[in-house]
């Protein structure tokens, strides 16, 4: 018999074959074993069933149930226990273990070495649910008086360092009953020895936590608001608005979890800025061209914040969380933010002196007399600081009773402005007191043209009174006006007016030449003096006539009250002759001339009676 020695390769294949068959035998043997036993690492309702058959598992479950109790671990306080006997816990073997065994893949036993298999059979145990609920109600964890409500996460108070942060929620101890019963029942069915109410989420949870999108977004929004930095530039001053102030304007809607900005607070802040930095309508300090520093009150010139627009702009900056340096929104601007708001380009109008100066960039461009509004008629040019509205050539100025064309029109206060006044021959002085304009500043043509050519809209106009700056012309005119009134006050001239007329003449003679030239009614003074001379001459003539008439008056008075007889004929005739020799003026002074006439009539009557008596006597003698 021939035998061949196996090669190494063949020997190797034989060894591998033997090993494979051995392993296969073992694999199949174990698989057969697990056809009646549960796989490695198998638990059934919490009972270790690994490598055990159904009967063994049933015995374990029965033992487990007999001794079963479940520990309930609350968030706070001591754990509590419910025993299986309290709830009539008992096993129920209805063939489900056999079903689970048949359904396991016993050929996959090697995989089971590395993987847990958890089987839950709902019908394996049973208990009385009402008993369970009764025992649960008696637990301390179900005592409502001891429960603490969960607190939602919230936004912290503002911190200069951290801004706004989310304060974490606080978990409470209010039990979510249905969830708790659901977890507890599941644990009992699976014969678990304990449950953690925290791990099983059996408490009523806060609606909002620090991870809630609403809270995160709210904190982000609020922090964006307070990170805003707005630097307001007011020339030589600045105002910085940041979170230190803005956080006071932020409010939270707790229901909607949204942040909002207080419109009222924003408007109050802008109003405060306006109150601090607005210069419109405020008194202006002016180093006058006459020397003294004065305050110009009134008018509307100056910086003025548009509060409505600025409040809206500020709100937008805050909502975007911007960092900006800006000027506020202005409804009205001025020339400068440093020192006086009108800068070094302005018109200075002295109503007392009736004289103006226009400075441009600090240099004097125009200086001139003018005539302002008529004081006597209540049309005085208003004092104050104003801005030039615009300038216009060839404008017709219209009012209730006038339509006046001018070449240069430069308004600065309603219908009041600068313009040429070619109808006037003279300017300055005190014409404005009684012969002024309707309120405008009347200027010589050339001065108005120069001003027009050099001024621009918006230029500040400072109008004021300054006692003691009256011009020499005004003083002369004032003195002349006083003289005019003195002359007018003389009224009807009589001899009693002589002292007053003499006094007026002396006052007039004391005036200087300029003032005398403005006395418009000097002719009335001369007429008064002439009248006095006339009255004095008339008085002298009257006195002479009275002297001439007096002897006749005295002679006639001797006749008064006496009985007239024929013997008095010579005397009466003599008085008649004296009267007839008097001049007419003297005759007019004989106030008792009627007595003489009555005496003559009586004498004539007596002579007639005598003559008739003699004739009657002669007739009787015949």
How do the strands and helices of this protein lay out in sequence?
Layout (H helix, E strand, L loop, with lengths): L7 H26 L8 E3 L2 E2 L5 H13 L2 E5 L6 E4 L6 E2 L4 H8 L5 H4 L4 E3 L5 E2 L2 H9 L16 E2 L10 E2 L9 H13 L4 E3 L16 H14 L2 E5 L4 E4 L1 H4 L3 E4 L4 E4 L1 H15 L6 E4 L5 E4 L7 E2 L1 H14 L2 E4 L3 E3 L13 E5 L4 E6 L2 E7 L14 E4 L4 E8 L2 E12 L2 E5 L10 H5 L5 E3 L1 H10 L5 E5 L7 H17 L9 H13 L2 H5 L4 H36 L11 H12 L3 H6 L3 H29 L1
Parallel strand pairs: 1-6, 3-10, 11-18, 20-28, 26-27
Antiparallel strand pairs: 1-2, 3-4, 5-7, 8-9, 11-12, 13-14, 15-16, 17-19, 20-21, 21-22, 23-28, 24-25, 25-26
Helix pairs in contact: 9-10, 14-16, 16-17, 17-19
Describe the structure.
With 622 residues, this protein is an alpha+beta fold. Helices cover 41% and strands 19% of the residues. The longest helix is centred in the C-terminal third of the chain and has 36 residues, at 522-557. The protein has a 5-stranded mixed beta sheet, with helices on one face.
Profile the largest sheet. 5 strands, mixed
User: Quick check: average pLDDT?
Assistant: 91
How is the quaternary structure best described?
single chain
Shape: rod-shaped
The class by helix and strand makeup works out as alpha+beta
Which parts are unreliable, with pLDDT below 50 for 5 consecutive residues or more? none
Question: Notable features of this structure?
Answer:
19 helices; alpha+beta; five-stranded mixed β-sheet; single chain; 622 residues
Structure, briefly:
The protein is of the alpha+beta class and about 625 residues long. The strands form 10 sheets. Strands 22-21-20-28-23 form a 5-stranded mixed β-sheet, with helices on one face.
